[in-house]
Amino acid sequence: MNKFFLNIWKYLKDWKNLLGHTLLGIAIIVVSAILPIPWWARVIVLVVLVVFNIFRERLFAAIFRKKTICV
Length: 71
What we know:
mainly alpha
């Protein structure tokens, strides 16, 4: 369980993740002002962003490991 919370903490501290969530939040506010969208659409967009970030972090880790092994 401790590893679970540690991974969440690392995920929340990532500056790319914070930037992505900030830009998504601003985009949701702007789109909501122009075109109101239901709450469930916002939740879907948030989940998609989280899944994208998880895959991005795993891909970066895999590439980084390959580079360090080759050196």
